Amino acid sequence: MTSDPTPVTASATRSSLDLAGGALSGKAGGDMTSKGPSSVDPDLTVAALDAPPTVSPSPTRRRLMVGALAALGTSAAVVGAARPVSAAPEERPNLPTDDDVTLLMQAMRLELTARDLYRAALSSASSDLATVIGVIGDNHGAYAEAIAGDTGLSANQIGRDDDLFDALEGDFTSAGSFPLAAHTLEQTAVATHKELLERYESADAVELTGSIMLAEARHATVLADVAGVSDLAIVFATTEAPLSIDGGA
Amino acid sequence: MKPLTPAARRLLSSDLGRARVSRRDALRTGGVAVTLGALVAACGEDRGGLTEPGRVGNFPVQTDLPNYGVDQTVLLRTASSLEYLALEVYGTAAELDIVPATLAPIADEVVANHQAIAEQMVELTESVGGEPYECPNPWFMDRLVGPWLEAVSNDESSEEMAADVADFATTLENIAAAAHQSLAVLGETGEISRAHIEAATLEVRHASYMAILDNGSENYISPAILGEEVTFDERGAIQIFAIPARFNQVSQIEVRAGPPDENGVRESFLLTTPAENSFIYNELGSCSA
Q1: Closest residue in B to A143 (Cα–Cα)
Q2: Which residues, other chains included, contact A54 with Cβ-Cβ below 8 Å and sequence gap of 6+?
Q3: Is the CB of A138 inside 8 Å of chain B's CB atoms?
Q4: CA dist., res. B185 & res. B198, Å (int)
Q5: Could you give the ipTM of this predicted complex?
Q6: pLDDT for residue A52
Q7: Least confident of A57-66, A150-159, A232-241
Q8: How far is A90 from chain B (nearest CA, A)?
Q9: What pLDDT does residue A67 have?
Q10: A247: exposed, middle or buried (Cβ count in 10 Å: 0-12, 13-18, 19+)
C-alpha cells in the first residue's frame, strides 16, 4: 500500500523539485537537498535507504533515519508496509487497543527523544531562541506524558531512543545547524505521526495524535522561519518521510 | 302577638328545628365531594383536549423541526463548504483590494491550497455516494462573514481594514484546521481521515506562517503556554501566535474587527468548528455555485 501524496499536489511537486535543486542550500548552513516529498512510496523508501546515496544526502537526514532504524530495531520495512485499514468510526473502540499501545510506545519514544534533544540544545542556544527551544522541548515532553496517560505506559520505563539522540545531538547543540536539524526532526515527527494515525484503531489514539502532529507542524513552521526558509514549498509541505516504526497488526 | 299552636311548639323543640347547616358541616361535605370528584376524574379515560401550553391570540400552526441525519456525506459536504468559505473570504478581500501587504506574497499559494482541498473534499463526497457541495457554508456566511465584513467596512482606514483581514484570515485558517482535525476522527475510511489530517496540517502551517509574517518572532510562542496573559495589541485586537498552545486546539476562537467603540473595544466574532447548526445536510441538496 502506498502513501498518497499531500493534498496540495502543486506544492508537493514543487517541493520535490526545489529540494532537488537545493532550495535550502546556503541557508543557515544547511543542506536538505536529499529530502523527498512528504509521503513517499514505501518501496521507493526501502530502495533509497538500501542504496548508496547519489546526490549528497543530508548528514542530518541520513543520521536521523539510520539512527531511527537501528534504535527501533526494524529492518528496512517501512511504516506503510502491510498497513491495516483504519477501523470505521462506528467500529473504533474508545481506548487504545493492544496494537495501538505498541505503536504509541514508539511514538512516545520519539517524543522523549525530541524533548531531550531540545533540552540539550538549550545549552548552546542564544537568548533569543531560548524561549522557543524551551517551549518546543517542553511540548514534546507533554506529548510523551499525554501518550503515557492514554496508554498507561510509563515514560520513565520507555525512555528515549539513545541511538537517535546520539545521532542528532551534535546538530542540536550547534547553534549553526540547530534550526535545520530541528526543522527536519519536526517534519519527520509530523510524517511519522501521520502514518501512525492511519494505523490506529481507537478514537483516543487518533484524537491525541491529531492534536500532537498539528502542533508539531506549527513547530516546523516556526523553525523554518528561524532557519531563514521562506520557500513556501518547504514551509507549507511535509518535506520529510516518516520514520520506520514496527508493531501493531 | 298570636300564641304558637302546640304543633308549632313541638316542631321548634325537636331536632328538626335545630337542623341548620354549620360551617364545619359545609366544609366536610364539600371536601368529600371534591375528593370523590378527583377520584372519578383520575380513573377516567379518553379525556381528550389539547396538551400543549395554552396560547392566547392568533398564532401560526407549529410544525416540528426536521430531524436530518449526519453521515459521512454530510461531514464531507460541510468540509468542502468551509473550504469554499475560505475562498470566498480571500476572493472578497482581493476584490475590495484589502489584502494585507504581509499576506500578499503567500495569498496565491494559500488560495490554491484551499482550492485543492475543496476539490478533494468534493471528490471524496462523490466517492461515498453523496452530492457534492461547492459553495460557502451559508450558516457561517450569514452569521459570521457577513457581520464581520460589515464591521471591517466601518474601519477608518485601509490599513485598519488590512489588519482586520490579516487577523481574520489567520483565525479562519486555525478554525478550518481544527474542523479537519475533528473530522479526521470521524472519517469512515483511512482515505478520508488521511485527507482531513493532511488538510489540517496544511492549514495550521498557513496560520502559523501568517502569524509570523504579521509580527515576526514576537508571534512565535503564545504567552499562554508560559502561563502568562495574552494581551491585546496596540489596535485592541487579539494577538495571534504561530504556536498558540501545546496541543492543537479545536475550541472556539475569538477575533475582533471594525472600529473601536468609545471604550476602545472592537466588535468580537467567535469562530467555531461546524456543529449541528452549520452542517450541510444531505437534505439541503446542492447549491448554485
Answers
A1: B247
A2: none
A3: yes
A4: 13
A5: 0.79
A6: 35
A7: A57-66
A8: 8
A9: 46
A10: middle
